Amino acid sequence: MKILHCADLHLDSKMTANLDKDKAKERKGEILHTFEKMIRYAEEHDIAVILIAGDLFDTRHISATARNTVLHAIVEHSDIHFYYLKGNHDSNNFLADLEEVPANLYLFGSNWTSYTEAEGRITISGMEFTGDNAGSADVSLVLDAGKFNIVMLHGQESESNGKDKTEIIPLKAFRNKGIDYMALGHVHAYKKEQLDARATYCYPGCLEGRGFDECGEHGFVVLDVDTEHMRYTQEFVPFAYRTLYMVEADVTDCQTTAEMIARVEERLRQEALSATSLVKIVLTGMLDVECEKDIAYIRTRFQEDYYFVKIYDETTLKIDVEAYMLDVSLKGEYVRQVMADDSLSEEDKKIVIRYGLQAIAGEEVQ
Amino acid sequence: MRLISCHIENFGRLQDCSMDFEENMNVICEENGWGKSTFAAFIRAMFYGLEGERKRSIEDNERKRYKPWQGGVFGGQLVFEEGGRRYEIIRIFQDKEANDEFELRDADTNLLSNDYSERVGEELFQVGRESFLHTVFISQSACGTSATDDISAKIGNITDNTNDLNNYENANIRLAEMLNKLTPSRKTGSLAKRRDEIAQLERLVQDGQEIGASLERYQNLLQEQENAYTAEQSKMQEMTALQKKVAAMQSILAKKEEWEHLKNAVREKQQFAETLKGKFPKGVPTREELRQAMTVCGEEERIRERLEMTKLSEDERKELKTLDDCFQNGIPEEQELEEQLAKAGKYRRIQQEYEQGKLSSYEQQRYEQLEKMFRNESEPISVIIGKWNERNNRKAAMPSKQATLTALQASATERPKKNPAVIGVGMVLFVCAILLCMHAMWIPGVIALLIGGLLIAVSGRGSGKEKPVEQKAAIQELETEIARDAEWIQQIDSEVEAYLIAHGKTFDEYMTATLLQQIMEESVEYHALQKKAGIASSKETGGQLTALQQELTDFLGRYQKNETASSYEEALYALRTSLQRYQLLARQERQQQTAQEEWKEAEKQLADFLQAYGYALEQDRRAQLNGLQEGVQQYQHARSNQDEAVRVLTQFEKSVDTSIFESDAGVEELPSLEELNDSISELTERMQMIHKTITDYHKTLEQLGNQYDEWEENREQLESLHKIQEEEQKKFQYLKKTQAMLSQAKESLISRYTAPVLAAFEQYYAGITGQNDTDFHMDANIMVTVTEQGRQREVNTLSTGYQDLIGICLRLAFVDAMYQQEKPMLIFDDPFTNLDDDKLSAARRLLNEVAKKYQVIYFTCSKTRNM
């Protein structure tokens, strides 16, 4: 039996952290569409079960479109069993107004709830964390070791403090409980580790990256369970429609914006990124204090090449103080005055010098 | 550099004015209104163009101010020498600066030169217009001066290198603008605006802190209500199950009751049917039998009616007897009767004719009279009338024929040309034809028409070919015809006359037609009387009458009808009537007999039927049978009801397991349905209230959710704004620092050059005033102050004369410091107006000294100030 494990879809997320209003709306729609495509993928690949390990939605306020799309997808694929465990971002609003929960949608509660699949050979158990039950989650879990046991939880693996009311999953406490696969959610990057001799735990990561802290591939995990021999294989399936990348470009010694652009181009050529990507370009290195640098223009230059481009300037200024010592111009006098000012830090001096030189040269001060 | 000469085309009031300049001192002493200031402005304009383009007032806008009132070319030429070379500047000013014309020529070769551009002033003097005004151009109203950046730069001698000091002001302005844009201390500054925005958001965020807690609280409340609802739902399920159970039990009881009821019904109906059956002595007749009996009864009734109807009365019997005697020899056939009737009719007609065939005395007389006239007639009158009509036609045609003949004869002897007379005749004939036709004389009319047409055609031929032979033939033919007609007419006249005479009439051509018509009528009368007389004298008629009479009498005698000749038909009709009556009565008698037999048979059938079931036939057998039928129906109905009851019971027993009716256990322990329903209603009501509360909580949660989302948005925005504010604050600090440091650097740079300017100034001042001990100071901006009464005073606190003096000295000091190698010319536009006589003398001396170093162009309107 094939099982799809996904989590942290964060449907209906605002997406305005980086994107403008229009692109944010577009991206929101794309993520919802990726969800629909994921289900179609499941249908095409004879996947019988889909595990949603929390944070299906981003906030408690779910738009009608998102709600209806998700429900429609579930109802239209009545042959697939959907197991939905709520995460810290989820609320009851998704199903609140439904008179009847779709028959192929299985829910969990604050106590351990178990369902069976494959004629009883596979057990899927899950518990939604509240403030009270996290501590005893491991204790109250009782499994039949003769079955193929899948356990669903949403939280941060042990010994890391989760924010936003996340709960900690003390993985060690779940060892040797007859678990075969822990289908977890909350961490947005794919991670798979061994829990014990029998079990592995896995974060599939989020389905689509939403910010530049979620760069790289994203998707879901497909398990292929051999219920006869109680064995399974696992595969991460990259599925995101768009990928985020962070690219560093060293622009040391560049004197002009054009030179910096050339350096960035070279780096991007090396990365060979798709035009659908979201790219954060980080300029690094040391620049002369008098160099001409227009960050806005650099962004403009590359924004047509990708879906979204962001430029971060992490360059530092360098100044050859000696060159100005004998300069009898205003510039020279200015640099000498600033360098002699002990109230400024070295970094501040560089910035002040840069500003002054730009002002004297009639350039835009930035 | 020095000025060589100039020529003003038109500039202000100056027109076509030329001037050559001396190497050193050039004094232009003219009265007021001559245009000295204009002249000075012209020189300035040659180097720097016109000033104040965007100014509206004529004083500030040199283009407007110096535009020549008299029209003409607005501009001129100026020749100067610089670096050993002589140049000529030619400027023509138009309405707009963009349209101004500028040329620089080599004054020696007159070729265009690119050594200097339109900005020749800046390029030559290395200062802008303002600095030019502050140094080499000294007007009477602007003696005071200060150091511009150009001046400072020039003084600093660093313009050759980077020109950056010149841009200090712009840099400072730009920095000031940026600081202004950012400033936190003014409302328009972005830092200030953002600070307000942040404060507002912080308030909102602060106020919204509770939303999360409220949200959680309501969620808990909702959970409680949902739990309560779930509990009530469970209760409801239990009660519903119980209700079902009770209902089921009650349903069983109801069914049992129904079963008992059905069994009772069967019993009752069975009893009733038996009772009814007992009323029949020998069993119950079937419906079919009864129906047949009723049919027979009905038949019997009809037979009796028939008996009644066919019964003969006493008179009828007698009549029948009589008729029987009458027809004892047999009954005549209808055909025979018809034949006899026909004979009687024939007899009657013949007799009538005979009676009618006799003529009256008048008729007899008239007949004899007419016989005389028509007895020996050879031709019938119709023939005579026909001939007479023909005669009239021919006679009527004669004139036209004659006219035609005349015309033909006339045309044969004359030349063949149109003859109006012939045409006229033809026309007349044409008209006659019309008139004849109108009088129904068709033949003469047509003939006249033809002849008339022929005449017109022939005479109209005119000069056509002649045909004399044909014409002659025609003439001859016509003559023959005319003669023939005349002869025939005469003959007819004779015949008719004779005829009329024979009939006792006189011949008159015009009355003949009428007379002939009368004869025709007489002829008709004659023939009618003749016919009438013929019939009466016929012998056949008598014989026929006799024969017929005999036959009829014989026939009637057979049936004892002895009728006379006058009423055979009546007798025959009477016979027919008797016969019909006889047949009717006989038939009736037969019907009566038949009915009698049938009635007996029917009665026997009824009696047999009733007897079979133990009944005797009654008088009113209809009522008897009805009663019997009613009884049978009741019985049948009762049986039917019984059967139905049995069927229903059987069906019920099939559909329901009656064994369940055996057990009554537990019925008494269950609550009643009414009690259960009440409980369920209460529970439903409670659940509805809880549901409503849940719905309200959902709504509230939705609102709180939205508020929370909004609060989160605000929070995020606040974070973002804090970040931006921090960055901008940093930037603001940097910019401030930059501005301060830049100013500091500039002052530091400039201050190096103030000492030589001060020294030069003091020298010039001493030269004019003779005072060496005045304590002057000069700051980094090359602003002069003087120590008076222990304090440094700005020069504008001194008298105007002293201010002008200091200004002039300062200008000279600037020029000395600025132009260490290439000396410019100095233009003085009557600057000493405020100096007293002593100082004026000293100024004069000074100027002469200056003239040794510089080319001086000195304008004045006063001889006292003449150098």
Structural summary, described in words:
The complex is a heterodimer of chains A (366) and B (867). Chain A is α/β, with parallel strands linked by helices. Chain A has 2 domains: 2-238, Purple Acid Phosphatase, chain A, domain 2; 244-360, no CATH class. Chain A has helices at 21-44, 64-76, 93-96, 257-271, 295-303, 321-325, 330-339, 346-360, and strands spanning 2-6, 47-53, 81-85, 105-107, 113-117, 122-126, 148-154, 156-157, 168-169, 181-185, 191-194, 200-203, 219-226, 231-238, 244-250, 278-284, 286-288, 308-313, 316-318. In chain A, strand 13 and strand 14 form a beta hairpin. Chain A is elongated. The model of chain A has no long low-confidence stretch (mean pLDDT 88). Among the domains of chain B are: 1-125, P-loop containing nucleotide triphosphate hydrolases (Rossmann fold, 3-Layer(aba) Sandwich); 139-157 and 753-867, Rossmann fold. In chain B, 67% of the residues lie in helices and 8% in strands. Chain B has 24 helices and 12 strands. Residues 158-162 and 462-466 of chain B have low confidence and may be disordered. The interface between A and B is medium-sized, with 29 and 34 residues.
